[in-house]
Design brief:
Blueprint lengths: L1 E8 L3 H11 L3 E8 L4 E7 L1 H9 L4 H4 L3 E7 L11 E8 L2 H10 L4 E3 L6 E5 L5 E6 L19
Parallel strand pairs: 1-4, 5-8
Antiparallel strand pairs: 1-5, 2-3, 3-4, 6-7, 7-8
Length: 152
């Protein structure tokens, strides 16, 4: 398992970039604008990790360097009840095997890995954890037809 990122929702992207980059010293390493979904994702890294990402730009190491993902939803008017913290993310070697072990241990799979790529679970304190398959596995039952449970 490899730690990937922590996602934080932000209500003012420019103010957040000023804080994280100009004041805290993080570096923007990647940005995605999604017109259809009406959101922007900005990935920030420490200067050391940003250097490694630049050096390893065409390798899996670049994609797996730890970052903070700032999620700016264009139409959001404010977050209440802690909704601004999103999730922790980990890359895993066998998402189906891990989810099976978690379920056997009594952990609810809130978003099953129907696509062979992504699942969500929650910690005992309600923190969302995204599990991302290293590569993609073909859809398999019972996961492919398993509904979501709760929220993530």
């Amino acid at each position: 398992m490899r730690y990937l990122h922590t996602m934080v929702r932000v209500s003012d992207l420019e103010a957040s970039l000023d804080f994280y980059c100009d004041k805290l010293g993080l570096v923007e390493v990647r940005r995605m604008e999604n017109e259809k979904g009406r959101f922007t994702l900005v990935f920030l890294a420490t200067p050391d990790d940003a250097g490694r990402i630049a050096k390893e730009a065409d390798t899996a190491l670049a994609a797996e360097s730890p970052v903070i993902e700032l999620t700016y939803n264009w139409d959001e008017k404010g977050y209440g009840g802690g909704r601004n913290f999103g999730h922790l993310a980990y890359r895993v070697q066998d998402i189906y095997g891990l989810c099976e072990r978690l379920m056997a241990a009594g952990i609810v799979i809130n978003r099953p890995p129907r696509d062979g790529h992504m699942a969500f679970i929650r910690s005992p304190d309600g923190i969302s954890i995204e599990l991302l398959q290293d590569g993609t596995l073909p859809p398999q039952e019972p996961w492919a037809s398993m509904p979501n449970t709760g929220s993530w």
